[in-house]
């Protein structure tokens, strides 16, 4: 029959089958069609059914298109599922990151405070103060956010020592976090402290983010 | 001269606040500087850059811009309010909410009739400046995106507003945007990052100069809306611009800490084809420069490193003179340390709290330069946090250590401290209603009275006792000066009280009669510190131009010693110092000694010794010891200066004759500043 000699041609813009199931389906259709035509020939004396080439071609194309559509839909569903999973992971990561930051700050702050702090609940933020915090965050992110290429005071002073007239050793080279902005936590105003605790800080190095325990989030105020 | 046991104190964690913005008033030669904590400081450029006035800050004020209108000072901040300051009473006079969200910039037109503010919601709001207040007039057309900077055209007809990715020129009359200048984003990787126009300048010939976050300074033709020239000056942001009054020079401050000057000059001699050319680069800061002022003779800059730098332009002043020296003002021009001499206690004043410390003890003796072993460490006894949003303006500790007082712009608080086995502090609840708007506080030496300077240079006297705080009297002067009192001191015998105000007037009050005794002849430089000698009752005053006077309170005239000093003149090394004397104290054992200090040295003036020559060179101990005896006697003069301790916040002499030296090394301050930019240096 005409079908046997024909190879299935690619339909539309699907160039090549990518998944095994799709290819299998395609060949499956072919075999089914062959079986159908074969089956139609099984009664010996009857003449074969008048199936025009056009009709069978159309039928084959239709089923191929169906298979392709199903395959495409499945792909889309899979993609959607993958995307949702990725978003969930990122959300979880962000949540984890945030509490790590808070804990890091608390750890360094608590050693300075030595019992002179009180824990209070956050006051109801009015619209005006929220806008002010957004504005302050804008400045902070433009000047100190990612991509702003900043260093620490320690490094800057050490470079000055190295390049100065009287060359000397790096400033506090043993204590690596001396001269980073984190040590000035208690000198900030309440508003900016709140902001710092709630946003990720660019100076936090990658190794600080790996904190194993999950602790409860608390906000410390100096007053 | 004498040996002293020195308590070397480095536990005062004084931390200045970053300079956010500044404005220069060329009429009065005053510079107003606003800090990140909301404080406003006024510097007198006519009087050796003395920090005349300090208006304390407030939580949440977040000042972003300052503006002078005649003698009036306005500020605007991220709290959405415009504040006018009362410079006579050192506090905000009133605030007006602009209802546009956080305010980023404020500027007045050249006639001083209108104020324009740039708001977060994208509007430029115009306020009319009236006699005692400002009144909202109208909004210019609203645009999408916050208005970060603005500048009036000198004709007051147009306003140029810097926003994100563009500069909009508004017609001030109709409010319509007439032109939009599109600013290019940064090249390379930052193509996706919006460019913020941090500052604009508008010149009379309709040239617009802009500084943006991509590090460019651009010159535009405001009439045609075309870009004339671009200068890429830094990899980081250009945060601020300032145009000189004659519009021939523009300075730009960057995040790198540099200040770049552009001048409108011609490359040829005939002066016809003038153009804007980059000329000088000043590197006087380690951190971001966020505030600039261009005076006629100098470039004034300030930023995140908290230091105010005045750089005179060498083509405007005479070279190699005092006038052309670089000035860096890093510490306040008033004392933040109180010392209870009898009790050996120190009071540290911070904007948001006070700390009371007990000095440590050591044992044994040693040679000069030895470090004695510490028997008992210094101890923080009390940390007292202020109530409310207003920052602490002044504080005082009584000599016995039993009374502590502080004031903000809104209230005064008095505390009784008791030292039994434990320290207890109790607030005195009912204070006299006369005690409000207090600028300076001082206890009498017997701790029975509290003196508080109030409005119009008057002084409130209240009696403090175990049971209550009772109003006694108000001391007033007769000159009619409305300027605030910035110095207050009482004599040891309890008879005299001296006050000094920013009109350079020093008044003496007789406390036994509770009335004005006399006024010291006005010297045209503002006094930076005054003190009354415990034995002779002479008033010693040191002024911003480093002159020293001694006035006899009993005789109501300058003393012989003071007249001799003025006739001879002070040695030039003394007059060339660039930080003011902030504290005077005396030696109980030797009445001839006057001990004073500035940021870099402390000095003991011996009134029994002759004055040094005008051009005398001060030798250190090592060299003096190596001189032959006859020469050494010749070098023995009245001024004994010690530079071993820096940077000095306070030098005081306790009753047990040990010296207390409170140091705050600049390195400790620098280590706590925000992050500087990362500069790639060759071979590092």
UniProtKB/TrEMBL annotation, chain A:
Where does the record place a coiled coil? 61-91
- Is the keyword Membrane in the record? no
Q: Cite the U3 small nucleolar RNA-associated protein NOL7 C-terminal domain residue spans from the record.
A: 117-179
Molecular function (Gene Ontology), one example: RNA binding
Q: Does the keyword Coiled coil apply?
A: yes
Q: Name one GO cellular component term.
A: nucleolus
Q: Which UniProt keywords apply?
A: Coiled coil
UniProt name for this protein: Nucleolar protein 7
Taxonomy, superkingdom: Eukaryota
Automatic annotation (TrEMBL), chain B:
Source organism, top-level taxon: Eukaryota
Record GO biological process: hepaticobiliary system process; maturation of SSU-rRNA from tricistronic rRNA transcript (SSU-rRNA, 5.8S rRNA, LSU-rRNA)
Question: One GO MF term, please?
Answer: RNA binding
- Start and end residues of each DUF7165 domain: 440-639
Q: Which SUPFAM superfamilies match?
A: Quinoprotein alcohol dehydrogenase-like, WD40 repeat-like
An example GO CC term for this entry is: 90S preribosome
This protein is called what?
UTP4 small subunit processome component
Q: Which organism is it from?
A: Haplochromis burtoni (Burton's mouthbrooder)
């Amino acid at each position: 029959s005409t079908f046997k000699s024909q190879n299935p041609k690619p339909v539309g813009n699907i160039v090549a089958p990518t998944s095994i199931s799709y290819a299998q389906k395609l060949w499956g259709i072919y075999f089914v069609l062959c079986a159908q035509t074969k089956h139609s020939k099984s009664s010996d004396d009857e003449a074969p059914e008048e199936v025009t080439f056009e009709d069978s071609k159309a039928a084959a194309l239709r089923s191929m298109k169906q298979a392709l559509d199903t395959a495409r839909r499945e792909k889309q569903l899979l993609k959607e599922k993958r995307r949702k999973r990725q978003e969930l992971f990122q959300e979880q990561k962000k949540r984890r990151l945030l509490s790590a930051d808070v804990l890091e700050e608390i750890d360094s702050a608590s050693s300075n405070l030595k019992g002179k702090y009180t824990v209070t609940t956050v006051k109801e933020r009015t619209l005006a103060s929220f806008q002010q915090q957004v504005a302050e965050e804008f400045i902070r992110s433009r000047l100190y956010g990612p991509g702003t290429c900043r260093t620490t005071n320690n490094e800057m002073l050490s470079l000055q020592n190295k390049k100065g007239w009287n060359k000397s050793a790096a400033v506090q080279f043993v204590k690596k976090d001396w001269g980073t902005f984190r040590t000035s936590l208690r000198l900030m105003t309440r508003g900016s402290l709140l902001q710092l605790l709630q946003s990720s800080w660019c100076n936090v190095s990658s190794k600080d983010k790996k904190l194993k325990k999950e602790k409860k989030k608390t906000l410390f105020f100096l007053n | 001269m004498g040996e002293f046991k020195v308590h070397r104190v480095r536990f005062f964690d004084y931390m200045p606040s970053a300079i956010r913005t500044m404005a220069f008033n060329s009429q009065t030669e005053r510079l107003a500087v606003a800090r990140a904590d909301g404080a406003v400081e006024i510097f007198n450029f006519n009087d050796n850059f003395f920090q005349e006035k300090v208006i304390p800050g407030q939580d949440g004020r977040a000042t972003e811009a300052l503006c002078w209108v005649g003698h009036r000072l306005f500020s605007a901040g991220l709290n959405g309010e415009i504040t006018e300051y009362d410079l006579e009473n050192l506090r905000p006079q009133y605030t007006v909410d602009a209802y546009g969200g956080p305010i980023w910039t404020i500027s007045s037109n050249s006639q001083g009739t209108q104020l324009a503010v740039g708001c977060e919601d994208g509007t430029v709001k115009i306020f009319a400046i009236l006699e005692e207040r400002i009144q909202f007039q109208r909004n210019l057309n609203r645009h999408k995106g916050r208005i970060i900077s603005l500048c009036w055209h000198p004709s007051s007809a147009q306003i140029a507003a810097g926003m994100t990715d563009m500069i909009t020129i508004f017609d001030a009359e109709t409010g319509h945007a007439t032109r939009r200048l599109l600013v290019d984003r940064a090249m390379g990787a930052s193509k996706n990052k919006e460019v913020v126009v941090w500052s604009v300048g508008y010149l009379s010939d309709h040239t617009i100069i802009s500084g943006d976050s991509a590090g460019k300074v651009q010159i535009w033709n405001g009439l045609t809306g075309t870009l004339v020239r671009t200068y890429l000056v830094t990899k980081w942001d250009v945060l601020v611009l300032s145009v000189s009054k004659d519009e021939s020079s523009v300075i730009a401050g960057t995040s790198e800490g540099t200040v770049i000057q552009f001048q409108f000059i011609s490359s040829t001699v005939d002066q016809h084809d003038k153009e804007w050319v980059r000329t000088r680069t000043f590197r006087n800061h380690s951190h971001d420069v966020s505030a600039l002022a261009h005076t006629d003779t100098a470039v004034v800059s300030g930023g995140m490193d908290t230091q105010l730098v005045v750089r005179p332009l060498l083509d405007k002043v005479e070279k190699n003179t005092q006038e052309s020296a670089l000035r860096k003002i890093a510490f306040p021009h008033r004392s933040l340390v109180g010392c209870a001499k009898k009790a050996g206690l120190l009071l540290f004043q911070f904007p948001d709290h006070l700390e009371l410390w007990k000095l440590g003890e050591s044992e044994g003796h040693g040679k000069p330069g030895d470090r004695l072993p510490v028997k008992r460490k210094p101890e923080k006894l009390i940390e007292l946090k202020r109530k409310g949003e207003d920052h602490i303006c002044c504080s005082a500790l009584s000599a016995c250590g039993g009374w502590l007082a502080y004031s903000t712009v809104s209230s005064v608080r008095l505390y009784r401290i008791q030292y039994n086995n434990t320290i207890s502090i109790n607030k005195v609840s009912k204070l006299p209603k006369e005690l409000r708007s207090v600028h300076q506080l001082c206890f009498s030496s017997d701790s029975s009275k509290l003196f508080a300077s109030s409005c119009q240079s008057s002084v409130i006297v209240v009696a403090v006792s175990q049971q209550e705080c009772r109003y006694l009297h108000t001391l007033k002067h007769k000159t009619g000066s409305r300027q605030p009192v910035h110095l207050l001191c009482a004599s040891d015998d309890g008879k005299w009280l001296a006050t000094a105000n920013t009109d350079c007037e020093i008044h003496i009050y007789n406390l036994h009669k509770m009335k004005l005794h006399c006024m010291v002849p006005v010297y045209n430089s503002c006094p930076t510190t005054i003190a009354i000698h415990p034995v002779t009752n002479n008033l010693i005053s040191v002024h911003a131009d480093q002159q020293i006077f001694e006035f006899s309170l009993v005789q109501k005239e300058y003393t012989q010693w003071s007249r001799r000093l003025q006739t001879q003149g002070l040695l030039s090394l003394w007059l060339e110092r660039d930080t003011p004397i902030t504290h005077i104290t005396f030696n109980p054992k030797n009445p001839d000694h006057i001990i004073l200090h500035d940021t870099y040295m402390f000095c003991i003036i011996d009134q029994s010794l002759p004055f040094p020559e005008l051009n005398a060179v001060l030798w250190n101990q090592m060299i003096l010891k190596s001189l032959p005896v006859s020469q050494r006697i010749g070098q023995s003069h009245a001024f004994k200066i010690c530079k071993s301790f820096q940077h000095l916040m306070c030098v005081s002499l306790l009753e047990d004759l040990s010296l207390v030296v409170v140091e705050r090394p600049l390195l400790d301050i620098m280590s706590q500043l925000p992050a500087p930019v990362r500069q790639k240096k060759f071979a590092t």
